[in-house]
Design a protein that fits this description.
It contains nine helices and nine strands. With about 350 residues, it is an alpha/beta fold. The N and C termini lie far apart (about 145 Å). It binds S-adenosylmethionine. S-adenosylmethionine (SAM) binds next to β2.
Length: about 350
């Protein structure tokens, strides 16, 4: 016979069993929740690590690209340097030497032959226009000489950046009448070779270099002029002024055309033309008037230098005495004319 207490306890067994089962179930649920939470934490950590790795890879790619851009720039500079660092040579190889030139134009009204249009380096192909424009520029020099040096006498003249003698040819009469000594220098060997072949011996013509150096003695020239040369000198313009000053005699005259606000506005007017777009800065195409003090843009044949007139005057007068800065002097020109003097002492 069963003890009555045991009988009562037996009643409790099923609920106790149920309780124990639900505790096990609760523990299993808790473990499942904990496992799931650990899974989520691991997943989050994996995603964060992947993101960090992607960012690091992106940063490395950006750094590589930056380095490549810098290297490209440096390589470009060093590749241009041999071409740009000295002069624009004749092509020194057996096939092309001596260089071929189209036959010059010989006219009964001209003592000197004209270069064929291909050898006029951008100046008019029409003979009359080529001669007229050269004469108008020569007149600018002649007038500056008359204003500042007085009556014509025996003078030594240098055409700085003479090309194939477009302006220099027009001083042949002064050479004959007053013994003017005529010199030309240009960094392009080809037009210099053309001059050597076609101009008389009394023209001393020399291939120059873009490094500021001229093949003349100190204090040896009365007048140096240049048309549209400082308009392209982007590097070392200040040292060029000092070099020109070195070879000028005390009291000697420098006449150079430059680009100022006038040229800026002129080019801006033609901003839709290919020849302007190819050679000029976006800023110049966009802005109708010159807002910056100066702008030096582009390289080699398409480098362009602009100064505000007032800035050019101030900058140039550090090296030479600025006598005049004239606006464009004739209908075919859009360049100002800087006239300077080397001080007497
Ligand atoms: C636009 S062209 C003008 C040519 C010539 N002055 C004329 O008016 O017919 C510019 C000339 O300057 C030359 N040039 C540029 N920089 C020079 C430099 N530092 N020394 C000598 N010539 C230079 C060029 O080779 C080119 O022949």
């Amino acid at each position: 016979m069963t003890h009555p207490l045991l009988r009562r306890l037996a009643h409790l067994l099923p609920p106790i069993q149920r309780l124990s089962q639900s505790r096990d179930a609760a523990l299993r649920d808790r473990d499942a929740v904990l496992d799931r939470m650990q899974e989520l934490i691991d997943q989050q950590a994996a995603e964060a690590a992947a993101l960090q790795a992607a960012r690091k890879a992106e940063a490395e790619r950006e750094a590589d690209a930056r380095m490549e851009r810098t290297l490209t720039m440096v390589r470009a500079e060093y590749t241009v340097l041999p071409r740009f660092g000295f002069h624009q040579p004749l092509d020194y190889n057996e096939v092309s030497l001596p260089p071929h030139f189209d036959p010059p134009v010989v006219r009964p009204d001209q003592k000197l032959p004209l270069p064929a249009p291909a050898d006029r380096f951008g100046y008019p192909a029409d003979d009359a226009a080529y001669l007229r424009m050269g004469e108008m520029d020569a007149t600018i020099v002649r007038d500056a000489i008359a204003r500042h040096l007085g009556a014509p006498r025996d003078l030594a003249l240098l055409d700085f950046g003479c090309s194939s003698g477009r302006v220099l040819r027009h001083f042949e009469a002064e050479h004959a009448a007053h013994g003017w000594r005529l010199h030309g220098v240009d960094i392009q060997a080809r037009p210099i070779e053309w001059l050597r072949l076609h101009f008389p011996q009394h023209y001393t013509v020399t291939t120059g270099t873009v490094q500021p150096h001229l093949p003349f003695e100190d204090n040896s020239l009365d007048v140096i002029y240049g048309f549209s040369v400082f308009t392209h000198i982007k590097y070392l313009w200040d040292m060029w002024l000092l070099e020109l000053k070195r070879v000028l005699k005390p009291g000697g005259l420098l006449v150079q055309t430059i680009h100022t606000e006038n040229a800026w506005e002129y080019y801006h007017r033609y901003r839709h033309e290919d020849w302007v777009r190819r050679a000029h800065a976006a800023r110049m195409l966009d802005q109708p008037t010159m807002q910056v003090d100066w702008l030096h843009h582009g390289d080699i044949a398409v480098s362009q230098a602009f100064w505000k007139a007032e800035v050019a005057r101030r900058n140039w007068s550090r090296y030479l005495e600025v006598l005049e800065l004239l606006p464009p002097q004739h209908a075919l020109s859009f360049q100002d004319v800087m006239v300077c003097r080397k001080p007497a002492r």
